[in-house]
Amino acid sequence: MLVLRSWLQEYVDIQKLSDADISETLTGLGLEVEGVEQSTPTKGDVVTCLIESVEQHPDADKLFVCQVNIGKDEPIQIVTNSKSAKTGVCTAVALHGSYIGCHELKIKKGKMRGVVSQGMFCSDLQIGRGSDDSDIVIFTDAPKPGMHTVEHFHLKDSVFELSITPNRGDCLSYIGLAREIVAKKKLVLKSPKISLDHLETYQAAFEADNQVADLCPRFSLSVVKGIKVGETPIWMKNRLEKSGVRSINSAVDVTNYVLLERGQPIHAYDRSKLSGSKLTVRQAKQDEQIQTLDGEDRKLLDGQLVIANADKPVALAGVMGGSSTQVDDQTIEVVIEAACFDPVSIRKASKHFALHSDSSHRFERGVDLENVMESNKRVVQLLAQVATENNDPLPSVCGHPIDHYPVKAKQIKIAVRPSFVSSVLGIPFLRQESVENDLARLGINTLDKADDRLLVEVPSWRNDLNIEVDIVEEFGRMFGLNSIPSKFLATKSGSNFENPLVKFTENLRSQFASSGFHEVFSYSFIGEAALQKLVNEKSVLLNYLKVKNPISDDTNILQPTLMVNMITKFLANKNLSQSNFKLFEVARCFLKPIEIGLAYWDAYQDSNTLFTSKATSESRPLERLSIAGIVDATEMAHWQSKQKHDFYSLKSDISKVLSSLGIHTSVSIEGVTDTEWLHPGKSALIKAAGTVIGYIGELHPATCASFDIKGQAPLVFELDVQRIFGSAGRVATKNRVSGFPPSRRDLGFLLEKAVPCGDVEKVLTGYKQRKNLKSWRLFDIYEGDNIPEDKKSMTFELVFQSSDKTLKDKEVDREFDFIISALKNELAVEFR
Amino acid sequence: MSLETIQKKIDEVKTVFESSLNNLKANIDVHAVDEMRIQFLGKKGHFSSLMSSLKDVSGEQKPEAGKLINDLRQHVTKHIEDFKKDAKLAEINQKVQHEKIDITLDTPSLNGSLHPVSLLKNKCLEIFRQMGFVVGEGPEVDFDFYNFSALNIPADHPARDMQDTFYVENTVDDEHWYLRTHTSNVQIHTMLNEPPPLRIIAPGRTYRVDNDPTHTPMFHQIEGFVVDEGISFAHLKGTIEYWIKALFGDKAKTRFRPSFFPFVEPGAELDMSCVICSGKDTSCRVCKGTGWLEIGGCGMIHPNIFTTVNYNTDHYSGFAFGFGLDRMAMLYYGLDDLRLLFDGIQSYLSQFPIYIAKDRTC
Lengths: 832, 362
What we know:
The structure holds two protein chains of two kinds.
Chain A: E1 2-4, H1 5-8, H2 19-28, E2 32-39, E3 42-43, E4 46-56, E5 64-69, E6 76-80, E7 90-95, E8 99-100, E9 105-106, E10 110-112, E11 115-117, E12 119-121, H3 124-127, H4 149-152, E13 157-163, H5 174-185, E14 201-202, E15 207-210, E16 218-225, H6 234-242, H7 250-262, E17 266-270, E18 278-283, E19 289-291, E20 297-299, E21 305-308, E22 313-316, E23 320-321, E24 333-340, H8 343-352, H9 358-365, H10 372-386, E25 396-398, E26 402-404, E27 413-416, H11 418-425, H12 432-441, E28 445-450, E29 453-457, H13 468-479, H14 500-514, E30 518-519, E31 525-526, H15 528-534, E32 557-558, H16 563-575, E33 582-591, E34 622-631, E35 636-637, E36 642-643, H17 647-660, E37 665-668, E38 678-688, E39 691-699, H18 701-706, E40 715-720, H19 721-726, E41 743-752, H20 757-766, E42 773-782, E43 791-800, H21 809-827
Parallel strand pairs in A: 14-25, 15-18, 30-33
Antiparallel strand pairs in A: 1-13, 2-13, 3-8, 4-5, 4-7, 5-6, 7-12, 8-9, 10-11, 16-24, 16-25, 16-26, 17-24, 18-21, 19-20, 21-22, 22-23, 27-29, 28-29, 31-32, 33-34, 34-40, 35-36, 37-38, 38-39, 39-40, 41-43, 42-43
Chain B: H1 3-26, H2 30-41, H3 46-54, H4 62-96, H5 116-130, E1 134-135, E2 141-143, H6 144-147, E3 167-168, E4 177-179, H7 185-193, E5 198-207, E6 218-228, H8 233-248, E7 254-259, E8 264-273, E9 292-301, H9 303-308, E10 317-324, H10 325-333, H11 340-343, H12 346-349, H13 358-361
Parallel strand pairs in B: 1-5
Antiparallel strand pairs in B: 2-4, 3-4, 5-6, 6-10, 7-8, 8-9, 9-10
Helix pairs in contact in B: 1-2, 1-3, 1-4, 2-4, 3-4, 5-10
């Protein structure tokens, strides 16, 4: 909302307040001033001057050539057509390069019929001091020549840009704002006197029929005859336009002027275009239509509030008038409507038609029922002032204005305890009178007093005050929130504990960051098309949630996996020539509430323990907390060695991070079927404590192709955070480190290529006679020359150690032999 | 053999030793020291021959002569040992002279990083945990009840326009599903599940239909609320001031001005003194010359909320606040482009340290 300082001055004397004072006062009251702009009627050199001589123009009868003193050594020459330009006259002149705001005129020097003119004499309106535009201005007090008119006549104005919160509909007007300043600054409100006594009355046979009094608690009409609609006087036009309202014609401008002055939306109808002599407030019937003032044909919904004449709706009540009855230059008789409509109905209509008007904005927030008729009269008063020709008789007004107001607004009364006020705000004991006085300045009057109790009455314009704590806020606004002392919270009482998952997740993030991963943040929504590039048509992830009003197709579903965003971030980094990087993200994933029976994705099933909710009957979407990562596996030459991330380094990163958090993982190759974006031969499920907690692998070449990933396929992983947390183990039995010397044996053999190392390790872990095998290390794998094509050679170093004695060679040999025979039996290895 | 004779022999050995000592001093060398040891202490060395002369010394003079030999032997042994050590050290020193690496070379350090918003969030949580808060959570897709109506934001009220909402298709029933527009839904979820007293801090992702240089459709908020006996607006002020000072330094100032959020009454907007110009630059781009930065909303929890969750309003009162974490992170780290936070470019994201000098910013 734009507020013009000079207009505000009409209702409260703010001359002593600077722009900054006003901003601070309003902002401090909760009426936020977002900006102040200086506005001047003219820009550049528009100065006072003295005409020193006047001569007839040599080639034009109606032009005069003047020598003008503008306070400089030499006079300047101005050509004018004004007969008032006489020697010795003081007037104003706009010099080359200046700008006249009201006429949007840029002044340039030039020749008029061959004679040089260095500027232009100005009218009172043009310099922005008054409203007379008929001739050049003449200053009778003979100001010194050469003074800037803006400074000399104090013509600077300011426009405040306010952001009014939706609870304060009453402040969407000049008077509303003036009331607040008056209360805070202890000033006096100057309400315009409204009287129609000077107007003749006549009998206009016009009626109103309010069929929906519950949706329209007050409906008033005035009828005015004999107006002359035309150009709006400059002063009014100026105020409206600086307040952000476009000038239409004098009658329409008056309605908008009153809307801004008093906050009451007004509509004017051309009486002659109305059929019949009655306006009806009713709900629209099926298939009714209206063309609104913006030229749009609108099909009305059954039940929408309209104002109708005999045969059709003529206004979308409270939102916008109809074009068929609009006021124009020909209008002589108008019907003025001021009313109060149900906020919810107006809001629904405004939303339905996507039609947000100054009227609907105010009705949605509620208008002052007690202000309706006064505002209507104010319109008539102003029409008589501005919508007339100078010498015509004043318009006359219908002697019986209609004011349908069947149920008077309920007076809200609230009991307020001063002790409650001080306990909510945390300020020391308040005297009853100080509360009473502060509230009274806001128009909240005390009806009755008792011990620690004031019964106050809420003024009709404050529909936001309903309960005691609302009054506390009013007192707080007067007291000033910054005057309230600060207190520390006392030592905590009671005990609510934090879900340990929270801290666990923080640690998880830190550990990945410490392992060289960069944390990224992505939007939780992704594009449906991108997901379809990732998954196949049978994927459980196709049960994703759709965003009904997405900002774009790239963000039209909620992510069921973090993988799409990981790939997007991977590509973003690649496009900026980043390489060798590791990224991760922790975020929620979403799915429709369905049953899932798959190894990893069924993590969704135990998802909603993320937050406690008692209402188990609610059918909520599934939300789970996921951590995912992507690793660029491009090889990078380096002076020491070649740097390259691969499946094994990622697997080791994950297992290091998790084991630092007390989780011991293993990988298994079973059932990697529901992650079709992974290379089938280079991927695995990750298990901890027997549960699948996630997957790891290289991105499938086909997936790379569909996402246009060139070069080395990246490595990815995704883990369910709650599952990880759930598999945290107890502290393992703390084994002392043996002080007895270890014995080492090398174990080399040939094995079928397809047998994974894990199978060998299973045998090493599981042979029956196992007693002293402490650890092992695979130090060589070889395939190729000298070895059958279907075989590979593996060499382990085994370490035997006892915790209570030095092992004899014989003991070690015996155990070593058991291992060899176990490997022969179970994996058919060959020893060479 | 007389004592004199043996004395003489001893002196001779001593002289030989002194002179070879001087030779050695000029050129310490492990081999020379070893030769010297053999020459004096070896099987055929000087001391062996001295010892064999000892048997010719008469009985009563034997102890004295023996002592003389032994003294010299100790003297020689000590010197040789010392020389041995020196010689070894000299050898090592000689060796390291030739062992030089190029210390300006680097191994690529593949450091990781936490996102600046994560870092700031962690800092905030640390501060609030000091004040006895615990972290609370709520769903990101939620019902009208938790996101709006229980928070005193009725349907068809202009207050809903303050937050442009994303709708999620509900495939189960007729209820609306929303992406939460604020973390305030955590208030309702928590209060419905736990009795007072409460001290909750709830950071999380939030969503609004907004996409311009200063707004992203997804952003991060941090919500805090306290419910207990005797909680007042003064406690709200104390808590928030502590937090802002702990984060931005002692000189950071806060300003509360009345505002409207349906779930608080009285409600206020919090401004913080400009971390860039401290209010000294009228052309400051960040605070637009006002000296103040809008940080978030706060206030006393509206009694309607307590009624909804069945808390006794005669006994309990509370305050709540909600702030934008992304904006705070930008202020904390002095960033000017919100979008970079969501672009995920590693070399950009790895620039943010956990600690920065606070006085620089305030």
